[in-house]
Amino acid sequence: MLFGPIQSFYDNILKNVQSDRRSKEYEDRFVVFLDILGMRSKLKELSYTDMIKAYNTIESVFRLYDNMGIVSAGKFTDYTNITIMSDSIVISHPAKNDQSFASIVGFSLCMMQTILFSISRVEPVFFRGGISRGLLYHDNLCVFGPALVSAYELEKNHANNMRVIADESITTSKLYKNYLLKNPGIFIKDNDGYPFLNFLLNPNGAQTMRTDLKQFVRSKIAELTECHDEDSEKLLSKMKWCNHYLKNIDNETLFDKP
Q: Residues 52-81: pLDDT tens digits?
């Protein structure tokens, strides 16, 4: 409760804010919710100088897409919103056409590939997340709506490993099927039925990146095999999944195609 002149001043500000948003409403948008795995422990252990490398990478990819003319009318940043809070990232784009879906998928892949070894060449940065479509409000200050809830619950309850998966609002659409025809291999259907972003399909320096990642994963598996606490066993399961993915990234013999 505010009093006197402060209350009056606040009431005027509130009227202006309400006026600004009165003409706005939920939009049909694609939304990607990402969790940066292990970021909480990294935030405790690493310096600002080390940590800012990851966040600089995200902003740099965002600016790169602006300069590449990904969106035919205007800049990529005119249509795409991104919100970062510590280890969580929300990206959204209006669900207007095939190009809209291609834009948000391409940006997400580019960011995942670029950030992988941005902090250290020894320990990679992995993502887990969900991709959905639905009603969403997203501006520079806030983001909310049913589509965000869907993407978040997908990440929390189903993604499990270092993968970004899509739900039925995406996979049952004609738009998604058209995208797969033009971009085979971008999504791989996992053994539980969820398609996930093939984040190491064709990154720059793919072979070096894959080799470094394989070495890290195999070393981590050997290390965790000797540990028997619950947290180590969970991480071991994730590393085994990643090792399985790396073995089949090209021939896809153990992962079914979508």
A: 888 888 888 888 887 776 555 567 778 899
Strands 164-166 and 127-138: parallel
- Please name which of 258, 254, 11, 24 lies closest in space to residue 139, comparing C-alpha atoms: 24
Query: Count of CB atoms within 10 A of residue 211's CB?
Result: 12
With tokens 């590393």, the residue in question is 239
For residue 120, what are the contacts with CB-CB under 8 A and spacing of at least 6? 50
The Cα–Cα gap between 256 and 6 comes to 62
Q: Identity (one letter) of the amino acid at 71?
A: V
Q: Which run of H or of E encompasses 141?
A: none
Q: Which residue has the higher pLDDT, 82 or 96?
A: 82
Asked whether the predicted pLDDT for residue 180 surpasses 70, the reply is yes
- Strands in the chain per DSSP E: 27-36, 81-85, 88-94, 127-138, 143-144, 164-166, 187-189, 195-197
